Amino acid sequence: MNIDEFLHINFWEMILRASLSFFALLILARILGKKQLGQLTFFHYTTGITFGSIASEIAAQAETPFIDGLISLIWWSVLTYLMTIITIKSKKARVLIDDKPTIVIQNGLILEAALKQNRLHMDELTMMLREQAIFSIQDVQYALLETTGKLSVLQKPAEQPATKQDVKADVTPPSYIPTEVVSDGQLIYENLVELELTEDWLMKKLKKQNVQSVEDVYFAQVQANGSLYISLKDKARRSSP
To answer: For residue 168, how far is the Cα from the chain centroid?
Structure first.
């Protein structure tokens, strides 16, 4: 076998390995469930890194037997899934694996021992407060360091923003969840059905705003009060009176 044949075979082997690894990772990730990155605990974070490392090893290292790597990836997924089930079923296991939130400010007082326990210094604490638009610690009633590493804050009553009930505003529940019904001139039927609305209803709303065709609409969204927000395509906007 000459060098060109060897490189040709090796190229297609790596393409195949990368493709299979990609789809294996996609399928297993879907099975394991979804969490936003900001919701990941340290356990999930390290598990995700290892998960990706195994997949990249399978895809990029020709010396690694593909089947061995795939078995390792699947088994790691099984272990992660089992640990997730255990933490759902057992509070003790959940605390052991994910830890529990820690109060770092109580009744406006900084708990120094809690900061040391979590290896958190004052600069980090004040930065996390500023990220929530809180610049003075004396405005804080309670602050908890969550298992995700984020800070949850309860401000003192005098510093809390007024609610609609406080100012006696209308608190009627919204009729709809704001939902996209037209995208780039295409009607999204399933969203209309989910909202229990019809195409006739949509066309009446469009005609009230002097829009004759769905194709002229770049984006349309049903609002919470049942009104329709419309953004026309550039071409339709220029030709409109």
So the answer is: 34
Which residues are within 8 A (CB) of 49 and not within 5 positions of it... i.e. 6 or more apart?
A: none
Q: Kindly provide the b/e burial profile for residues 42-70, where b requires at least 16 CB atoms within 10 angstroms of the residue's own CB.
A: ebbeebbeebeebbeebbeeeeeebeebb
**Average pLDDT of the segment spanning 184-202:** 93
Region for 121 from its dihedrals, namely left if φ exceeds 0, alpha if ψ lies in -120 to 50, beta otherwise: beta
- In 3D space, the residue among 179, 185, 239 whose CA is nearest the CA of residue 213 turns out to be 185
- For residue 194, the model assigns a pLDDT of 92
Is residue 199 classed as helix, strand or coil in its secondary structure?
helix
pTM to 2 decimals?
0.57
E strand or H helix at 53: helix 42-60
Whose tokens are 């997924």? That residue is 77
**pLDDT score of 13 more than 90:** no
- Strand pairing class (140-145; 102-106): antiparallel
Alpha carbons 237 and 223: distance in angstroms, whole number: 21
Q: How far is CA 103 from CA 2, 86, 110, 149, in A?
A: 67, 25, 9, 12
SS (H, E, C) 200-231: HHHHHHHHHCCCCCHHHEEEEEECCCCCEEEE
